[in-house]
From TrEMBL, chain A:
Domain SKP1 component dimerisation: 115-161
Top-rank lineage group of the source organism: Eukaryota
InterPro entries (UniProt xref): SKP1, SKP1-like, SKP1-like_dim_sf, SKP1/BTB/POZ_sf, Skp1_comp_dimer, Skp1_comp_POZ
Signal sequence extent: none
Pfam families: Skp1 (PF01466), Skp1_POZ (PF03931)
Gene3D superfamilies: Potassium Channel Kv1.1, Chain A (3.30.710.10)
SUPFAM superfamilies attached to this UniProt entry: POZ domain, Skp1 dimerisation domain-like
Record-annotated SKP1 component POZ domain positions: 3-63
Protein name: SKP1 component: dimerization-like protein
Pathway where this protein functions: Protein modification; protein ubiquitination
UniProtKB/TrEMBL annotation, chain B:
Pfam family, one: F-box
Domain spans labelled F-box: 9-44
InterPro entries, per the entry: F-box-like_dom_sf, F-box_dom, LRR_dom_sf
Ranges that cross the membrane: none
Protein name: F-box domain-containing protein
Native species: Dinothrombium tinctorium
Amino acid sequence: MSAIKFETSDGFTIQVERETAVVSKVVKNFLEYHPTDKCTFHLNCVDNATLRKVVEWMRHHKDDAYIETESDESDEERSQDVSIEMDPWDANFLNEDLFFLLDILNAANFMKIKVLFKNCCKKIYLMSKGKSSVEIKRLLKERCDFTDEDLQRIANKYEWMARVN
Amino acid sequence: MESKESSFERLTDDVLMKIVSFVAFKDMPSLRCTSKRLNSICGQQLLSRSVLVNEGFFDFKQQCYLYENGIFNKEMKIRLTYAKMLNLLKKTLPNVRSLALVAVDGLFDENVHIIGEYLPNLQNLFIFEKNDHLKDSGLSRLFPKCPNLQRVWIHGIGLDGSCFKSLSKITYFSYMPYYNSFIETIDLTMLVSSLQTLRIHSKNHFSFPKHFLPHCDHLKSLSIPIFDETQFATILNNISVVGRVSKLGVAIHFQLESELLQTLLPNHAIKNLSFKFLSFVSTENIGELLQRFPNVEHLCLKLKRPGNHSRNEVVDINQLLSIISNVQRLQTLELCVRKEHNAKSLRINTLLSLLNIERLRDLQIGYLWAEEVNEIIACVQDYYSQRSDKRVKISLIIGDKATVFVPSANIAFNLIDRISRHGYYASQCALSVAISFV
């Protein structure tokens, strides 16, 4: 049986079954043009812990029909899908701290795993949902580069958005 | 290791944009206040947003219609008057393709066409009006300005159909007449060449336009109320003869008799079937009706409480389930029986025989009493511990306030409260029906 290898940024190698590996669009596209049984993908922005997590996700979802049909052409159509609901297994799987989540997000982006990428985005948003700007800043460790005046101006300008129950 | 660094500094603008695209309008102001970078990304992202829901008035039923199709979405909700919304569309949201106006203040027949001037690329339009302000005249000025319209919902508005003269390309049309409307039908002849889905919701007498079905070349999905026997037979047989429609939903507002069922032709094309019985129907007649649709994969049956019938004519849910177990190709089942107090409770054996249907993947059943729910959860848990090869997603609709015991489950039960009809996964519970873990 053929196997695909991934080499991580910190020098580890993980071997993955072909049907799992092709969940990643990068791998899938490569194999379509270069049919081969053995090859190694160097993931120089993904570390070992992240890759293990991502591979676990890929294994769980390798048989899902929607992974197959997900193509770049339908991007326009799918941009309308902004519902924040997700598969409960995924929601549970992604219960990680923000930093790890960002690593997974970056890996999913790099490896072109759309559903995982999307669900990471949703999860990150859900962490900040309903929080005030001060709380979000603390969560993201973001530096505030606004003056108080700026803040007041922005708050007033977009007040109408917050007016829904 | 990276604790000094701001979390989002590690992300590119593209990735950040994608995260921001999920952010609800109401969460935008606080996100914009966090940093200049986020502020400018939020601003850019808004320009590319394609969905907007303006909800002037909360209406539970409209919410269901609005969100069931996956086009509109609760996070994209705002509450503005019509004039302010138009201003917003011009300045901040020029790329809206899907717009929902739910009882928006200041929307009239005279000004509805302005949407078209601001959003010429509009594809999906949902309008719900509760004061009968809109008519065919306003819409017939709007439609020519939106040549890309594909899906249209017009709810709470009495139309005669003349507005469709300038609208010939739409594929999806959902219509609910104004509740006081005297217009009992609608002229849909302009839409026959393009329509794929037609849904009509009406509690008042409504007669389905004649000569419509035979000419509808692309119709695949039809959902309508039927108020008398002759129409029922005509429409259903018409669909069977043409054989293109694969999804059918009928709200049956009259008492279904077996003589009528004898005249129905079998229909092999229907895969997705939904019946709502608003008058009394016997279990045998439901069985007889289902036999006409041998290839059904998705079935939904809703039985309302019959108004003027004696109490001993209660539908037996167990008998109904054993009839349904005979539907060979069933994949999803939604069964909703309004419960009488003297009704028999659901027997576990009938439920298990249902779970044995080979292709069944999704089961939603209700209304159940608390004891039944607890018994089912325990039993199904047991059933799956022996058969790990098959997983059915089970949703239970609970009929009363109840305490439900969920064993630390590896199966996610979806428990639904009858009143709010919101689903909650038992593994992450927050249900108004109290749930305890044991």
